[in-house]
Design a protein that fits this description.
- This protein has 18 helices and 14 strands.
- With about 425 residues, the chain is α/β, with parallel strands linked by helices.
- It has a 7-stranded parallel β-sheet with strand order 3-2-1-4-5-6-7, with helices on both faces. Strands 10-11-9-8-12-13-14 form a 7-stranded parallel β-sheet.
- Strand 6, helix 9 and strand 7 form a beta-alpha-beta unit.
- Helix 11 (about 245-250) packs across helix 16.
- The longest helix is centred in the first third of the chain and has 25 residues, at about 1-25.
Length: about 425
């Protein structure tokens, strides 16, 4: 009954809202208008008979986190195809940048039985993998009905998300108990999942620690340095709306170091550039492909898929989404590159990782934008402290590697055990 009520609500209220939301988002990011048929489980053409492993990665962060796991799956199952599903255009573009034609990619259909049923009938996955925090009741129920093992891996459940899911106890418990398995990032994540009704939760660690900096990105970072010149660089990466304004408000006009702003979402590149100009700063953009002039004060990183390169080209990095209440973005990447990390007070998306990084001396936490700018300037002036923090960051990142191997053990235990292996069903949903 809870799932029926959920489905009726989804169809009559949430789907119309979602379509309007896509149209609204398309005003600034036209890519949202593409591939609408996939969101309703509509596909053309014939499928290959090779077995297919399906991974759902909502957006950029989940797609990057899946990279070491996908490499391990390709090595373990070379005769299988890999399908990546996404929710956002930026996630889809990231999978193109990372994997090219070595994987297939689609949008995940809306969680309506007819759309999910078409998706499963068309692709017939032999196993499904949901990344991080994706609990879609109809999707989980229909894969279970068809005998397809579906697992939640690299699972995280913040206190905020747990409170939200707890408002729908029967629906949440039904989804969690129907999953074939759950591999959580940390023990607190596992405890919150168990409190919501999950039965078997294994702690495997965070896959993002296994995403080592690609050599081509490090080389691009060196090219960035040649464009940026000899000045020190303070990078503000994956910034969210409102954070750039606060940082620019406190960044001194006379500061010799270069401020680099890389907004989290590409539709905001132009907006952030205009904001910096309106504050009186001399601005250049990465897309110009020109050396940064001495009089330039702010460089806008208006590109996708190059965060490792930006980190490699900087002396100090602030990880966005933490200054305001967005929960923080991935602070593991700058640690892996050996860059001192500054984070704000909001870290609920990476709570355990942030605590561990702070304890390891790899990161420093600030309370507001003024303190952020002050600490950044102090670090820029202290090479010894920067080197110490950078080395601590690399040591911290290496110590927490190994989640891929542990996650693969969980996946293989479910996929290679009978009766699931190779199971396919062409039945339509009830």
């Amino acid at each position: 009954m809870p799932r029926l009520i959920y489905t009726l609500t989804l169809w009559f209220l949430l789907i119309p809202w979602a379509l309007l939301h896509l149209l609204w988002r398309a005003r600034r990011q036209p890519e949202y208008l593409g591939h609408w048929d996939e969101r309703f489980g509509l596909y053309v053409g014939r499928q290959s008979h090779e077995p297919l492993i399906w991974i759902h990665a909502v957006s950029v962060g989940e797609t990057r986190a899946a990279q070491p796991l996908i490499a391990a799956l390709m090595a373990r199952y070379p005769d299988h195809r890999i399908l990546l599903t996404h929710t956002t255009p930026t996630g889809r573009q990231t999978s193109t940048d990372l994997f090219g034609e070595s994987v297939e990619r689609r949008y995940l259909p809306y969680d309506c039985p007819f759309a999910v049923g078409r998706f499963l009938s068309y692709f017939q996955p032999v196993i499904g993998i949901l990344m991080e925090t994706e609990l879609w009741p109809n999707l989980i129920a229909l894969t279970h009905q068809r005998g397809i093992p579906l697992l939640l891996v690299n699972a995280r459940m913040s206190e905020k998300s747990a409170r939200r899911y707890a408002r729908f106890p029967q629906l949440t418990r039904g989804a969690l108990t129907t999953l074939a398995g759950i591999a959580a990032q940390t023990e607190p994540d596992a405890q919150r999942l168990r409190s919501l009704g999950a039965r078997e939760v294994i702690v495997t660690g965070n896959l993002k620690f296994d995403s080592t900096p690609p050599k081509n990105q490090l080389a691009l970072g060196q090219r960035f340095r040649s464009l940026l010149g000899e000045r020190s660089v303070f990078l503000c990466a994956s910034t969210r709306e409102g954070e750039e304004y606060a940082i620019l408000k406190h960044w001194p006009d006379e500061e010799h170091a270069l401020l680099v702003l890389v907004p989290r979402h590409p539709q905001r590149f132009d907006e952030v550039a205009r904001l910096a100009e309106s504050k009186g700063f001399a601005v250049q953009r990465r897309s110009d492909e020109k050396p940064v002039a001495l009089e330039t004060q702010v460089w806008i990183g208006d590109s996708l898929g190059e965060l490792f390169a930006y980190y490699a080209a900087s002396e100090v990095a602030f990880v966005g989404g933490s200054l305001l209440n967005y929960g923080c973005q991935n602070l593991i990447e700058p640690c892996a590159v050996g860059v001192p990390v500054l984070i704000g007070p909001s870290t609920f998306n990476f709570a355990e990782t942030a605590r561990a990084a702070l304890a390891a001396g790899a990161a420093m936490q600030v309370g507001h934008a003024g303190e952020l700018v002050n600490e950044a300037r102090l670090l820029l002036a202290n090479a010894v402290h920067r080197q110490s923090m950078g080395q601590s960051g690399q040591d911290f990142a290496r110590r927490h590697q190994g989640a891929t191997v542990r996650t693969m053990d969980v996946l293989q235990a479910h996929y290679e055990s009978e009766p699931h292996r190779g199971t396919k069903s062409c039945s339509m949903p009830i």
